[in-house]
Fold:
Amino acid sequence: METLGLMGAGIGAGIVTIGAGMGIGRLAAAAVESIARQPEAANDIRGNMILTAAFIEGVALIGQIVCLLIVLNAN
Amino acid sequence: MTGKYTLLLILSLLISSLLFSQESHHEDSHGEKEEFKIGDMIMHHVLDSHDWHITDIPKGNGEYTPVALHLPWIFYSSRDGVVFSSTHGLEEKGYVAHHDKLYALKEGAHVDHTHSEGHSEVHLDDHWIEENTDHAVSIWDFSLTKTSLQMIIIGILLVLTFGAVAKGYSRNDGQAPKGIQSFFEPIIMFIRDDVAKPFLGDNTYRFLPYLLTLFFFIWFSNLLGLTPFNSNIAGNISVTAALALLSMIMINWNGSKDYWKHIFLAPGLPKFLLPLMVIVEFIGVLTKPFALAIRLFANISAGHFMVLSMVGMLFIMGKGGESVVGATAISPISIGFTAGIFLLEMIVAVIQAFIFTLLTAAFLGMAMESHDHHEAHH
Structure:
């Protein structure tokens, strides 16, 4: 059972990474596109992009920490 | 040129894998050797401790003399009250440290020192601890640990650095900045104009000292955490939690009337949803600092995990010193990746300090906003 738990932690870490990658990827794509359309608003857009990326990252990291805790508590 | 390097890389991989298979075959004859556990090594490096371990000097007969700074133990125990003790004086006072945790010894229990020569910590097993310690004695450990000492060092460093910067401003008043002052001026200006002002507006100067302290404290601690012999304090959840708690107090203390109204009595909400929304909004108040703490902790720890895993590759391939060729073969990869991650971590150090400061400023700005326009709707 313990190995199954470890496997779950590994798979979980992977899924979290997919989610965060998709989220930040879409965010960056949209931000770069809007900067290209309206270069004079680049500073505002960049600020908001970093802020939102930090939110997505925060959720992803909480997921990663949960996976890490599973591994650390297994042994 | 690139082709040559690729060839070298593939060759070293091939050689190392060859050696590895040979070595694992060789291993069977004496299986009692203590195995190198990379997880334990990483945790030992990342966690807080009561010893500031610097290095080990080999004695020549396979043993090592550790060079370490033993930090004092300061704790409250329900048996003896407040106790100050050095690491070596612990046993006289009836306590023993095991895996950095303190236990009170039972009457007449003796610690076996036969295997502990040259080591600061005697090797005890959990079973021994279970049998020989008094669990009725509760201990609160307030010792100055490695992390707290490192925090004080960073505090002193900050005071020295920014004392010099401030002195520069009084000396070069009305003139161009000089020396260390000209290095920090653009950074301070960046925090003021791009982090604080967009969110705080007129209140910028009220909160700028806090935001600048936060930024430079986190940045300095992250950078120092990357240098040898230093402890990475932002990779300790207690430190980041304390920083986030400060921000949380700051945000809620300065919350406007509208901020609290939106939490407890959100306007325009159907009455039956109110109890549910109060809970949701209140959880929101707690998640913001929680996410701040976790983000900083996880980012910095992840970097250190990566660096230590890459360094650990040397020991895995080198069989803990047995196979010199294996270690040599893996060293280009190990050192290359470590250097790369170090460069990345230097960027992460400043980005994480920036994000922590930015989010604190953003939450502060949100909490202090008063929305007069909302009242006009209903």
Observations:
- The longest strand of chain B covers residues 51-58.
- DSSP finds ten helices and seven strands in chain B.
- Chain B touches chain A at residues 39, 43, 194, 198, 291-292, 294-295, 297-299, 302, 354-355, 358-359, 362 (CB under 8 Å).
- Strands of chain B lie at 51-58, 64-70, 73-77, 81-85, 95-98, 101-104, 139-141.
